[in-house]
Every structure is written in C-alpha cells, then in structure tokens.
Amino acid sequence: MGLWAFVGWSLFLGAVVATVGGHFGGYLISFHLWFITSVVLSLVRIVFRSFRDFASCKILLSWSLVVCLFIQMIDEAKYMNLLNTKIENSTFVWKDDLGSYINPAYLPAELIGLNSNLDFVEEYSGLITAFRRKPQLGRVDSVIHALGSERTAAEKVMSEIPSAVISSSPHIGDWFGWSFSANWWFHRVLLQNYDPKILTPSTILWKPASSRIWPTVPCTIDNLRHEISLHSQSDGLYELTLDTSEFSLGFNEFLMVQNNINHAADSNGYIAIDPNGETSTIPVYLHRSIDNTRKIDFKLVSNDSNDSIPVIKRCSARSIVVPSNVSSLVYQDFGVADTPYLWTDSNWDRGVGRLFPHILLINNLANREQYRDVSAIVFNGSMLRKVESVIIDDEYIRIILSGNLLQPRFVGFPNEFKVIKKKYALK
Fold this sequence. Notes:
Oligomer: single chain
C-alpha cells in the first residue's frame, strides 16, 4: 500500500514540477490513470469485504474482471492490427538506427545525423541527435532549457559558430513567434551568421555564411505615453535593446513590449521583458500599414491595477538586414509575405492552387493589414493578375486571382511577387 501511494505522489509531484513553465497539457495523464486505477481497486476491495461470506459473489466479481481484461485485450489487438495495416499501406520506411518507421520527408535528417564531421546544434533535440546517437554540442537538449548559467554556456556554443544548426520551421504554428522572441539570443546568431534551407517539413538547416552588419537606428522612449519610437524609413525586422537596470518589478509583475511577432496563446503581439537583466534585447517587426509612425508600446501586467509602469531610461536599435531568401523563409509566421506560403499537399503546390488560380498566405496581423485592400498581384515583374477576392480563415489567407491556373514552378515559393493596392490600382 505504501509503495502504491509513493507511486501516486511521484506521478503527481512530477507533473506539478513540469507545469512550472506554464504548460499543463499531458503531464497529469499518468497520475490520472493512477487515480482511476486506485478508485477501481478501492471499489473492488470494498465489494470483497462486504461480501466476503458469499463465495459466489467473489467468483462472479473475479470473472467480471477477467471478461473486462479480455475485452481490453481484443480492443488492443484490433488497434495493433489497424496500425500495422496503416503502416503497410503508407510510404513510411523502417530505419534500424531508430528502431522505428519514419516519414521519408524526414530522411534528410539522417544525412546530417550520420555526418560525423559536422558539429551541430538542434533547437530541440530530435532526429539529428537520434541518428548521431550522442548528445549535441552544449549542455542542454533544447534551447528553451538554456536558463540561468546554462544560457551563458549555450551562448558561448553559438558564438563559436557550429558547422550546422537545426531550428524549428514557421510551420510549427503560433509558438514559432514566441520561440523566436523569447530565444532571440539563439535566433539572432542564425540571422547574422548563417544561411538557411529547408531540411524537413518541420525544421530548417543553417550553414555558416559571411557575417552580416546590422546598421544602428535612432531610438527614443516616451514614458508618459508608454511608447518606443524607432526612427527608420524602412519596414521590417529590428533588434531593440532596453536598459532595464534602473527599475524593478514586483512578484507576478511583467513588463510587456509590443513586438508584433509573439502571437502565442493570448499574448497579442507582446513579449515579456527579462525582469532580472541589466538590459533586455528582443526582435521587433514593424510595418507601415500597421503603424505609420513606427511606434510600439509597452505595458505592465500585474495583479494590482494600481501598480505604475516602470520608467525605461534608454534604448537602442538596429535594423536586421538579411537576404530575401532568409526573410521569406523565416519571417513567414509574422512578416508581410512577398512569396506564396510554403505549403504542399493535394490542393496546393508551394503555396499555389492546383485546381484554381489561388495563392496561399499565412494568416498573421501583418498579412491581414497588407492584403485587405489589394487590387492586383504582379508575378515575375510583369505578369499581372487581378484579385477577385480575399478569404481569411483561422490559419490561412487565400488570394483568389483572375485568369488561368498559375504555374507553381514560376510563381510558387520562393518566387517573389509585388502587390498593387486599390488606391494605386491601374485603370
């Protein structure tokens, strides 16, 4: 009995510790199973004690349990048979190195993993580490685990420019913008020192390139209006550094800065500033149609509505200059699209409709603002197609164009296009 209770407490406390970072889904499943099992065993024990003088009741109850287990075994056998049928009829291939089946689209990871000459870092330890069968560079298995002194160690690893880095693709959804913002110390090294290419449907492979120079941009703070102004004439991605050495935050207080990148959960384009650092550096995406003055605001999130917003004394900023092949691949989740969205299935080929003259874009704030009043799209510098309508759903934006089917080879990702707004439309 004591051992069983120990197992239950271990499962519960282990799940509680895992939720410290704010994640709740899935961690209590084992404890839930333990709890249900405990309830069933307790009921069985009560029944046995209540009818201990009636041997027939004990036999009936025992056979009932046997029947339940038999039914469960049949159900499990059906599931395994169905799983085997799906595997036999799929394109999955068996890999002895992993001891499992794998989608062929992820096989490029094997080439990197088995290349012993590459020192690699994975944003999240995955197939590369599995194929290599040894830990990646550094002391943590994921970028999000690089906290405290581990952050310093991980930054040192990245500063030495490993020969290969594997990061998450924007295809992972809203949490890409959060990771891009919260782990900017990691992503900034990639943008400044690497060139990317698609590795698998969910990852990007980065190889070292010539280091890029990011020019400084004047930055001012209006603490009365809680605004930060970046004085630049161009749209795009910026690096913003705030001096946070002269203010302190109370327990359960967060200073949130609008960066138009983090849209995970209910963040609404804001990211929390490190409350303990001397400075805090974050990426900020600015677009003229979102805010003509290129100003971003900051706010305090607190349990006490009477708390005042701390004063930020100084700021500095730099314009993040990268080639178009980098921005079109990495900025898809939050930036203004100038290429179709990289998506291929039975209906789409590299973001171009297979059955209709449509193009697909990711649904983000910048794209919604950019394409709400678009009149036409120009491909390859000369091929103009009028926009019939714009359809926005939960995940994507579909641009319905006039004319015949488009050729994905010429207009699909990564081919760029130009937008003509309605107020500038050709007559």
